[in-house]
Amino acid sequence: MSKWFFMWIDKYLEYLEVERNYSPLTISAYKKDLEQFSAFIDFKDLNEVTKSDVRSYMAALLALDLEEVSINRKLSSLKSFYKFLFELEEISKIPTAGIRNLKSPRKIIIPFSEWEMQKLLETEIFALNDWEGVRNRLIVELLYITGMRRAELVGLLWKDIDFANYQLKVKGKGSKDRIIPITKEVSDLFNHYKKLLKEEFEDIQDEVFVTAKNKNIYPKLVYKIVKSYLSLVSEKTKKSPHMLRHSFATHMLNNGAEINAIKEILGHSSLSATQIYTHSSIEKLKEVFNVNHPRNIN
């Protein structure tokens, strides 16, 4: 076993955290990818790894019926890691150079329908006299009306909510902040939730969403909550927080929102390499949101 391999993995992960501002979830994924590869090549020294090793690793992953998109993500982790080592002159050649991503079949993602979302959010499924019921309602509705990522929801702080202007600030990928509009109904629900939290716990955490032990909620619990409620109104296979993000974008587009405005609300850096990026003010984003989101149309 090469201790140097693991030492450089740790240095690389530190670089991702400090220099690149990657999220803990992303760093964890990179760590897992690199450790899996190092085990596959039997912990060779850094300069002993070859293109043949990388190709054999990809073939082994394919044999396990891993999806092409997942294999490509692991390859991307390796490419980034070896580029990092090469630039620091720790290796003389990059073993991933010239290795292309696998072609993956384009999958059609079917979002939840507006009818399904309205049915879920306009019924009495959620117990609104209980702090956990209100929390769960907020989680589902917030993911749907803002299109925010699960990690962004987990990291949302009370100080990030602007109740007076019906908007909130989220920290996206690369620690980039953005402002997202919310409805008055959601703003009122936040206030109701906070009131119930104060009745339940002695101290209110900085984080908005907490567990029954008054600790910051974790990603797997968010997924579990979303899946359990969506299962009540839909028979679709995928019932994840990301599907609510996809539904947000689809429903906004279907109701006539400009694609650049949706891009900015979602926190995408660009729509394509050739598309001109158009900056929108929060006032303009609010206008687009108020006019086009089905949960805000009177």
Structural account:
The structure is a single chain. By secondary structure, the chain is mainly α. It has two domains: 3-87, Tyrosine recombinase, N-terminal domain (DNA polymerase, domain 1, Orthogonal Bundle), CATH 1.10.150.130; 114-296, Intergrase catalytic core (hpI Integrase, Chain A, Orthogonal Bundle). Helix content is 53%, strand content 4%. Strands 1-2-3 form a three-stranded antiparallel sheet. The protein starts with a helix and ends in a 6-residue tail after the last helix.
CATH architecture of the largest domain: Orthogonal Bundle
Q: Remind me, CATH topology of the largest domain? A: hpI Integrase, Chain A
Shape: elongated
Read across the widest sheet, the strand sequence of neighbours is: 1-2-3
Q: Strand count, sense and closure of the main sheet? A: 3 strands, antiparallel
What would you call the structural class?
Answer: mainly alpha
Q: What radius of gyration results from the CA coordinates?
A: 22 Å
Mean pLDDT: 85
Compact description:
The protein is mainly alpha-helical.
Topology:
Layout: H1 3-18, H2 24-40, H3 51-63, H4 68-87, H5 114-121, H6 131-146, H7 150-154, E1 161-162, E2 167-171, E3 177-181, H8 184-200, H9 219-230, H10 241-254, H11 259-266, H12 282-292
Antiparallel strand pairs: 1-2, 2-3
Helix pairs in contact: 1-2, 2-4, 6-8, 6-10
